[in-house]
Recover the amino acids of this structure.
């Protein structure tokens, strides 16, 4: 969806579609005791919003505190009667809010995620006033959890590795952190259904068992709520791979709907073995509706679901052409694409930006699911990978996604562990790097400089 | 089976257990409104859904409604009838799932006691159905009074009553339920899956969403509202390709099309609409139409016309000449048929779903789109099934004004008096792949 005019955006035919999902910037404010997943949620939400094209940045007050107080001694810093500590913490929050203001008013940001405990009504009131003064909408995200196992696991996953605890052993760190939590507990004022009935917020209880949603004001808040209600933290892995090598691949042609080469079929068999070896419980398998992914999945001998939205990027008039032919017939288009590969739309086709939009339901469903294998295509895989690994729009169209290689993504701490497993079946290289010369008057040689070899 | 999955654009798990959506709430809390809307939405996105309104069963059992005394908690005779009606409805739910391939059943009744809900839960558990409760809680007397006015006065129960009598009776009817009303309890019922809607959507409590369909239902329920508004649907003005009887493409407006754009602008201004949003596709003809309005508009790629693939910019005569078999296949199943390298109406519905979701969130909107897209959107608002959808009449130069009212949608059609070609091709009598060209082209509208 492309909006009309915004002073912050260039008015161009291919302009980023989601620049203006809301008319004024939004401040998302986390609320909750330590180790309730606020930073996990902040980072994930930020990553999702940026991927769908909403410029978002997180501001972690703890970071500001670490910059201010170089060395963390102990939980005593957080004691409610530690005046010095309180002063520093208030300053850090102010500094963070200042940066928020700059990001949202001067740097083209649309959403800022203010990640801190914000456990007192007083602190939240300060933030609300700040937002009002600056014309920002506020949406609170509170995480409430009393399950000691979940809290323990949180601490183990992300606190032990924190800069605050680099010089402590595990027991010391856990003990100190527990006391740190205690410092907040007495003054914690949870969002109240009555007292806070005019605020916009979502209260997440027990890692998503239950949600309380109050006064969703606009489209972006509605999307945020939907996203937060679909994510989970159950351990699982997502496997991404392309179809096996196809006939058109071998001929250096893009797009189309061809079948697998013998090597491609070999990959299917190897993939089947690999999956068995992984011993995954309840694996879902998804393909596109194109022959080459379906044929690949067929080799697995398990049920699979076909998604039309997983189809490869539509290259429009360039479908089934070799790069050499594109250069021959459409040298201008070829150069324009190299200039801005993310936003460039093939005539009668799609752009990477369009692809991200149509893949959003896939991402949402991937978040809901547990173990999934997605058999897809080069451009599609780049988009999905960019989401999981938080790659920018500039990097996305050049991510390396070779044939016959499985990427295993396992969420860990605040990010994703990536294991790249080549299944040892040869295939053509289909990766074309950005050439040096992207000028529309460049020579054919310069244009074709980075085309990988083919038949 | 794989073939089923190929046909469905949305990978909804058809092999999973059916779901019962169970409404909960006092009378006049919007349960039937929600039930009907949800049913319409789910069917439109391709999930076979049916609504079971226990009140209907009661009206069939007790031909004439006397007064609220029927609902008094100490009316044993009536209690027996009401229990029997609920049981009959549950039986029909089971038949819908097992014999009619239903996926979702919306069980619309007050279900205000734990006892009644326990009966439903046991029934579902025995048969392997998932249960998702939707409770509507509202104590705003104005909202309740408005509900009663909009939908109760017209009810068969009050056909012989004047407005004041009906209101008085209904208020006492509500009181009959009030004493025994036990809302879903956040503690005792923490293992159940439910959403509680407070004050027409001001606040929601969502507990234990189990799966994809429940997540979609929650998302939908959280996006609908009851604020009065109108949705205006229009196609682009007549285009150059329209004139020559060609489908698809990305041509500009003909002179008459431009006239329409100006007439549309005048019409819209005349309607005096508060805060109107205007949406177009990314195609020239809708954008040119919107330009004449002189207001800001948003372009949605999702509103682009159906992609006719290899048939883009052909006339029907050319399609018949070059691809006679495809032409016939399309006439056989116009909803599911996908143009080679193109799309089907079914695909179109899938890509329009975010548009529908945003239309639900918005208030006054004018959507300038295309014939097939218009048909899909209209089918959603007017609850038209898949076999009717591709033949809905959406002529050029005509604005449809849709205003939600009671349980449905009022439709007003405005032809803006600018002539245009007819682009509507009815299903021909002969859809056989071996038919002759004359039979195939029998229903093609005139063009240059």
């Amino acid at each position: 969806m492309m909006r009309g005019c915004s002073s912050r955006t260039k008015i161009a035919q291919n302009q980023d579609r989601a620049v203006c999902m809301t008319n004024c910037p939004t401040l998302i404010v986390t609320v909750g005791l330590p180790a309730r997943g606020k930073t996990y949620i902040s980072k994930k939400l930020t990553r999702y919003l940026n991927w769908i094209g909403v410029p978002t940045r997180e501001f972690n007050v703890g970071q500001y505190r670490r910059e201010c107080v170089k060395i963390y001694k102990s939980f005593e810093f957080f004691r409610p009667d530690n005046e010095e500590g309180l002063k520093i913490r208030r300053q850090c929050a102010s500094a963070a809010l200042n940066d928020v203001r700059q990001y949202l008013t001067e740097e083209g940001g649309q959403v800022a995620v203010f990640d801190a405990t914000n456990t007192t009504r007083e602190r939240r009131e300060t933030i609300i006033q700040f937002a009002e003064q600056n014309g920002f909408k506020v949406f609170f995200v509170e995480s409430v959890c009393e399950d000691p196992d979940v809290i323990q696991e949180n601490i183990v996953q992300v606190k032990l590795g924190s800069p605050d605890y680099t010089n402590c052993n595990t027991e010391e760190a856990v003990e100190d952190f527990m006391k740190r939590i205690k410092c907040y507990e007495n003054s914690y004022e949870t969002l109240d259904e009555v007292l806070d009935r005019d605020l916009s917020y979502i209260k997440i209880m027990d890692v998503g068992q239950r949600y309380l949603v109050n006064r969703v004001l606009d489209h972006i808040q509605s999307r945020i709520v939907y996203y937060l209600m679909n994510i989970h933290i159950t351990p699982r892995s997502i496997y991404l791979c392309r179809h096996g090598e196809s006939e058109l691949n071998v001929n250096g042609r893009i797009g189309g709907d061809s079948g697998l080469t013998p090597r491609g079929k070999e990959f299917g068999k190897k993939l089947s073995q690999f999956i068995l070896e992984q011993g995954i419980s309840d694996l879902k398998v998804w393909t596109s509706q194109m022959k080459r992914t379906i044929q690949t999945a067929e080799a697995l001998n398990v049920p699979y679901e076909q998604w039309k939205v997983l189809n490869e990027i539509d290259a429009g008039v360039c479908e089934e052409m070799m790069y050499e032919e594109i250069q021959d017939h459409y040298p201008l288009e070829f150069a324009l694409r190299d200039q801005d590969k993310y936003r460039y739309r093939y005539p009668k086709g799609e752009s990477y930006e369009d692809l991200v939009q149509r893949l959003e339901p896939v991402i949402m469903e991937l978040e809901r699911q547990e173990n999934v294998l997605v058999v897809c295509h080069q451009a599609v895989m780049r988009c999905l990978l960019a989401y999981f690994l938080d790659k920018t729009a500039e990097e996305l169209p050049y991510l390396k996604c070779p044939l016959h290689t499985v990427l295993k993504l396992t969420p860990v701490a605040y990010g994703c562990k990536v294991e790249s497993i080549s299944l040892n079946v040869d295939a053509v290289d289909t990766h074309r790097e950005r050439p040096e010369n992207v000028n529309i008057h460049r020579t054919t040689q310069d244009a074709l400089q980075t085309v990988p070899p083919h038949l | 089976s794989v073939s089923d999955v190929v046909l469905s654009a949305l990978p909804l798990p058809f092999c999973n257990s059916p779901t019962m959506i169970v409404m909960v709430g006092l009378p006049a809390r919007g349960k039937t409104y929600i039930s009907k809307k949800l049913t319409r939405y789910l069917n439109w996105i391709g999930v076979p859904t049916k609504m079971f309104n226990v009140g209907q069963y009661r009206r069939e059992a007790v031909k004439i409604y006397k007064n609220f005394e029927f609902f008094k908690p100490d009316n044993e005779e009536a209690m027996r009838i009401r229990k029997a009606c609920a049981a009959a409805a549950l039986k029909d739910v089971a038949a819908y799932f097992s014999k009619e391939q239903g996926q979702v059943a919306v069980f619309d009744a007050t279900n205000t006691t734990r006892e009644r809900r326990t009966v439903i839960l046991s029934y579902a558990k025995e048969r392997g159905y998932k249960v998702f409760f939707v409770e509507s809680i509202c104590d705003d007397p104005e909202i309740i009074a408005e509900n009663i006015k909009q939908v109760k006065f017209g009810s068969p129960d009050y056909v012989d009553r004047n407005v004041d009598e009906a209101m008085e009776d209904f208020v006492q009817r509500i009181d009959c339920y009030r004493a025994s009303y036990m809302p879903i309890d956040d503690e005792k019922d923490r293992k159940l899956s439910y959403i509680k809607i407070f004050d027409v959507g001001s606040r929601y409590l969502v507990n234990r969403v189990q799966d994809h369909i429940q997540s979609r239902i929650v998302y939908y329920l959280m996006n609908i509202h009851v604020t009065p508004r109108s949705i205006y649907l229009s196609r682009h003005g007549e285009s150059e390709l329209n004139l020559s009887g060609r489908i698809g493409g990305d041509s500009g407006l003909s002179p008459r099309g431009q006239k329409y754009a100006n007439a549309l602008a005048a019409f819209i201004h005349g309607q005096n609409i508060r805060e109107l949003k205007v949406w177009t596709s990314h195609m020239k003809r809708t954008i040119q139409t919107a330009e004449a309005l002189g207001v800001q508009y948003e372009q949605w790629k999702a509103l682009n016309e159906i992609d006719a693939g290899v048939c883009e910019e052909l006339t029907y005569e050319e399609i018949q000449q070059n691809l006679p078999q495809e032409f016939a296949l399309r006439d056989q199943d116009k909803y599911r048929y996908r143009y080679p390298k193109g799309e089907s109406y079914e695909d179109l519905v899938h890509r329009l779903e975010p548009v529908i979701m945003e239309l639900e969130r918005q208030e006054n909107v004018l959507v300038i789109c295309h014939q097939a897209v218009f048909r899909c959107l209209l089918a959603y608002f007017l609850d038209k099934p898949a076999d009717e959808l591709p033949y809905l009449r959406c002529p050029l130069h005509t604005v449809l004004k849709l205003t939600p009212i009671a349980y449905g949608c009022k439709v007003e059609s405005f032809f803006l008096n600018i002539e245009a070609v007819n682009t509507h091709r009815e299903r021909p009598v002969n859809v056989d792949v071996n038919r002759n060209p004359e039979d195939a082209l029998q229903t093609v509208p005139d063009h240059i």
User: Anything to note?
Assistant: Chain A touches chain B at residues 1-5, 17, 193, 197, 209-216, 219, 222, 225-226, 229-230, 286, 289, 305-309, 319, 354, 357-358, 365, 368 (CB under 8 Å). The radius of gyration of chain A is 25 Å. Chain A has a mean pLDDT of 92.
